[in-house]
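Quick review question:
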């Protein structure tokens, strides 16, 4: 909605307003306004459209997630580096159902930009391994699966990794 730097400027101005309210003795107004400033700081680190796209993906609503991601016009200017990584990650996951060449491009860019959660990075690498396997690049797929297994500390992707290894044996 707002440019990332604009969100910080708004947060600083609202915080100054909150300090003014505290100085006037309006403690409850100051606390309420300070919470409003906290919302803008939160939205600086977590983009609202990416959060809404994640919620749509949890419901398996790919068109809805795509709608929310389309609101971000210039991701390199409007998002922080990690947010841009998640933007590309979401695009890659959605395109992996239809266009694996485009999905590979987006997922590689997401891995390059970085993702803040280890299991998200593992998922991106596992998706890339699946794409490499469909394109008959067995060595690259094996390498990516091993990296995904190292990153998956909770073991959430063990089933998918086992299935992919069984499919690799068939190639």
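Suggested answer, residue by residue:
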């Amino acid at each position: 909605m707002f440019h990332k730097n604009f969100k910080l400027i708004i947060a600083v101005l609202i915080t100054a307003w909150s300090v003014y309210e505290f100085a006037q003795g309006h403690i409850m107004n100051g606390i309420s306004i300070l919470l409003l400033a906290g919302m803008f700081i939160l939205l600086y680190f977590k983009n609202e459209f990416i959060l809404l796209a994640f919620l749509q993906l949890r419901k398996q609503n790919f068109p809805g997630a795509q709608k929310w991601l389309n609101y971000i016009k210039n991701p390199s200017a409007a998002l922080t580096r990690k947010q841009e990584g998640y933007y590309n990650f979401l695009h890659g996951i959605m395109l992996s159902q239809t266009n694996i060449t485009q999905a590979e491009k987006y997922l590689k860019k997401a891995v390059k930009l970085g993702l803040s959660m280890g299991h998200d990075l593992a998922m991106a690498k596992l998706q890339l391994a699946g794409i490499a396997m469909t394109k008959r690049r067995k060595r690259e797929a094996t390498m990516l699966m091993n990296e995904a297994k190292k990153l998956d500390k909770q073991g959430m992707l063990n089933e998918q990794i086992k299935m992919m290894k069984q499919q690799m044996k068939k190639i």
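Why it works: The chain is about 80% helix and 0% strand. Residues 3 and 78 are 5 Å apart (CA to CA).
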